[in-house]
Write a structure and sequence with these properties.
single chain, five-stranded antiparallel sheet, 12 strands, 44% helix, elongated
């Protein structure tokens, strides 16, 4: 095939033409290295290898020599006895080589291999190229989870390398039914994405719906796992999260055994889990590493913290503004005494303190870790004391806001904590406007919303709505391990096992 007959996406037999295309494609890429080679009788045959020095280990062996070494019987020499036909015949028929090479058919494929950290070798008079995987980039080591620390249990976290994360999960769940399917997203970033499920445990209808929703992301620039939430989520504008995230391999494995689907993206340690229900946001992996009674009490404590974080300021506003007769007389007098001289109503007072608390929380997150916590603590003490002395806020309001913030920190999922922080303000407005009736109205609207909400077709309030008695064993409390591991978890797997035993 001549140069004129070469299709735009094909590799040309003309080596100089291929070299020019490589130079044009990677113009101004100063970290690209192109090395010319000569081989054969009187070294009349030519080739060149191309790679990015920033993506490979420069101490790697000479892959051009390794490619030709398998074609000769001697170990040392200039490879002058090799003819062009030997090279084409050997690699076209996948000959056994010391280094495994991939045979590339198109120029676009060669470009992607180079960008992926491979070393690609082009030969003259051959419309194919050889690719060697020599990618080696400095990666963060597997360490303890930062966002999900535990006292008891595995202290292993995922990292930014997709292959390492898959290996962590494969090592802990050694089953041939564990499936990993790959796809690539983004015309520029070419980001590798994988989703995993346990065949026999996942609901086939849920898996089909998941595949349908992510079928059109190949052109989207997906840089982080959370980007996929808008494609997977049922309601894009709902305040309640419809997927959850983790950095713990044991949490991902437990979700796979429950019939969930997990998604990972190269370049981020975050694992996306779907579908989810409302009660999963109060569960941590450590719940299953302690005794049942202790884990159940801690989970009930989290649910209580959720109620405090979402409603305590609004309840205080409603009681102090509309329903003071419900407060015991001695407590009411104490509250009135602390509010003496405060120029703002309870709602404005709460709004000011909540604003400053959220500001301190955000500042503590964004500041460098060594000083972030110190700034948050000192800032809270200074602002709280100054607000009391300046008669901007009462001591009771400072206590209310502090308890609300502490309760929100008790929630294991950051996405649900953000939801609480947002919903708290509309509830405060309703409480300041309608009192207790406004709080009831707000909770009713929120309950109606999450009742109608779905995650990949699964009801968000399952197993309460619709009610499934058998699956309530891991919602509000944690039952015995012997019961939990058989129902409801793994019920699909147990069904498959029973069918196989019956068939045998």
């Amino acid at each position: 095939m001549s140069q004129e007959e070469t299709l735009p996406h094909d590799i040309s037999p003309d080596l100089s033409y291929n070299l020019k295309r490589i130079q044009d494609t990677f113009a101004a890429c100063n970290d690209l290295t192109i090395l010319p080679w000569s081989y054969g009788t009187e070294l009349e045959r030519t080739a060149f290898s191309v790679y990015f020095t920033t993506l490979i280990n420069t101490k790697n062996i000479n892959f051009m020599k390794e490619s030709l070494q398998d074609l000769v019987t001697h170990e040392i020499g200039p490879a002058t006895s090799i003819i062009h036909e030997n090279v084409v015949n050997f690699f076209s028929k996948n000959g056994v080589s010391a280094q495994s090479a991939s045979l590339l058919d198109s120029f676009d494929q060669s470009v992607q291999h180079i960008l992926s950290g491979n070393l690609v070798i082009f030969f003259d008079q051959w419309n194919k190229a050889l690719s060697y995987n020599v990618f080696e980039l400095e990666q963060r080591k597997v360490t303890e989870p930062v966002t999900e620390p535990v006292v008891q249990g595995p202290h292993v976290s995922t990292i930014e390398d997709l292959d390492t994360n898959i290996g962590l999960i494969r090592n802990l769940l050694r089953s041939p039914r564990l499936k990993f399917e790959y796809l690539t997203a983004g015309e520029e970033s070419q980001r590798r994405i994988t989703y995993s499920y346990l065949d026999g445990a996942v609901n086939p209808e849920t898996l089909t719906e998941f595949k349908r929703r992510i079928s059109d992301i190949d052109r989207e620039e997906i840089l982080e796992t959370s980007y996929l939430e808008e494609w997977i989520g049922e309601s894009k504008y709902s305040l309640f999260p419809q997927v959850r995230y983790t950095e713990r391999p044991d949490t991902a494995i437990a979700s796979l055994l429950d019939g969930k689907i997990i998604v990972m993206v190269n370049g981020t340690p975050t694992i996306l889990i779907c579908p989810v229900d409302f009660f999963e946001f109060f569960v941590t992996s450590e719940d299953y590493y302690h005794r049942t009674i202790f884990s159940s009490l801690i989970r009930l404590l989290r649910i209580g913290a959720f109620c405090i974080a979402i409603s305590l300021p609004s309840i205080y506003i409603a009681l102090s503004t509309f329903h003071s007769e419900l407060i015991p007389t001695i407590l009411l007098l104490a509250i009135l005494d602390t509010r003496e001289g405060i120029p703002f109503p309870a709602f404005v007072e709460a709004l000011i303190m909540e604003f400053f608390f959220e500001l301190l929380r955000e500042a503590g997150i964004r500041l460098p870790r060594p000083i972030g916590s110190a700034v948050s603590i000192v800032g809270a003490l200074v602002i709280g004391q100054a607000a009391i002395q300046a008669k901007i806020a009462s001591p009771v309001m400072v206590i209310i806001v502090s308890l609300t913030g502490i309760a929100s920190f008790a929630l294991p999922q950051y996405s649900m904590a953000i939801t609480i922080r947002i919903i708290r303000f509309p509830l405060m407005i309703l409480a300041a406007t309608f009192g207790g009736l406004g709080i009831m109205l707000g909770f009713l609207l929120a309950f109606l919303h999450i009742t109608c909400l779905r995650s990949l077709g699964q009801p968000y309030l399952t197993p309460l709505a619709p009610l499934e008695i058998n699956q309530l064993r891991d919602v509000l409390i944690v039952v015995s391990r012997k019961i939990l591991l058989h129902s409801p978890r793994n019920h699909h797997l147990h069904k498959k096992t029973a069918e196989r035993k019956k068939a045998n």
